[in-house]
Design goal:
- The structure holds 2 protein chains of 2 kinds.
- Chain A has strands spanning 3-7, 10-14, 19-26, 30-38, 44-49, 56-58, 61-66, 71-76, 85-93, 101-103, 107-112.
- Chain A is mostly beta strands.
- In chain A, strands 2, 4, 5, 9, 10 and 11 form a 6-stranded mixed sheet that branches.
- In chain A, strand 6 and strand 7 form a beta hairpin.
- Chain B is mainly beta.
- Helices cover 0% and strands 48% of the residues of chain B.
- Chain B is built from no helices and 11 strands.
- Chain B has strands at 5-7, 10-13, 19-24, 31-37, 44-50, 53-57, 65-68, 75-79, 88-95, 106-107, 111-115.
- In chain B, strands 2, 4, 5, 6, 9, 10 and 11 form a 7-stranded mixed sheet that branches.
- The radius of gyration of chain B is 14 Å and the shape is globular.
- The chains are: A mainly beta, B mainly beta.
- The A-B interface holds A 4, 31-32, 34, 36, 41-45, 48, 88, 90, 92, 97-106 and B 4, 33, 35, 40-45, 48, 55-56, 58, 91, 97, 101-110.
Chain lengths: 113, 116
């Protein structure tokens, strides 16, 4: 059965800290891995990763995929209170042109001032 | 606003009633997905459409659930004879699938269903 596992499930840090969120997966016919940020509403898209070893970066956030070891990490540097959210990892797997996303349970990040 | 929209945003209903939710995807997107999310869990896939064709349904989608996308634009999700276990956030997402590749899914704000 396809599965996506995120760790840790929750994390509390101080403003300015750097955090690393982990996502491992076991799926058939992997197509892409996506990271989303969810505050008290729908998930908002952060990154889509399809190739190993290529870092994607957006401001203080960056992510990289290792297709050999079947995991991805999401780094957030110089955290701010506005980074407090649930970070969801999802994998797109399956046949032609992919299919629905398989989500992990998420990592709840709390950044205190 | 050119994002994914959903209506209503909140719905409270009594057990046994039928409810219908609507999703309007981003206009140029040809794929539309429905997910369900409960507290402490990531979204779980329910079904998806490519244009007007329903291509896949999850085992989670019982016979009481039906979805349509009649003209390949907006979609509706109906739940008949609601049960308390149906209480959840129902999320709609859309994406564009081209000949060469697929693109990321964008989510709507969700409809929060509470069954009393």
């Amino acid at each position: 059965e396809d599965k996506v596992v995120q760790s840790p499930l929750s994390l509390v840090v101080h403003e300015g800290d750097t955090v690393t969120l982990n996502c491992s997966y076991e799926v058939t016919n992997f197509r892409s891995l996506l990271w989303y940020k969810q505050e008290k509403k729908a998930p908002t898209f952060l990154f889509m990763l399809t190739s190993s070893g290529i870092e994607k970066k957006s401001g203080r956030l960056s992510s990289i995929l290792d297709k050999k070891e079947l995991f991805s990490i999401l780094n957030i540097t110089a955290t701010q209170t506005g980074d407090s959210a649930i970070y969801l990892c999802a994998v797109e797997a399956g046949g032609q042109a992919g299919t629905a996303l398989i989500f992990g349970k998420g990592t709840t990040l709390s950044v205190s001032s | 606003d050119t994002g994914v929209s959903q209506d209503p945003r909140h719905k409270i209903t009594k057990r046994g009633q039928n409810v219908t939710f609507r999703c309007d995807p981003i206009s140029e997107h040809n794929r539309l997905y429905w997910y369900r999310q409960t507290l402490g869990q990531g979204p779980e896939f329910l079904t998806y459409f490519q244009n007007e064709a329903q291509l896949e349904k999850s085992r989670l989608l019982s016979d009481r659930f039906s979805a349509e996308r009649p003209k390949g634009s907006f979609s509706t999700l109906e739940i008949q004879r609601t049960e308390q276990g149906d209480s959840a956030m129902y999320l709609c997402a859309s994406s564009f699938i081209g000949r060469a590749r697929g693109y990321e899914q964008y989510f709507g704000p969700g409809t929060r269903l509470t069954v009393t």
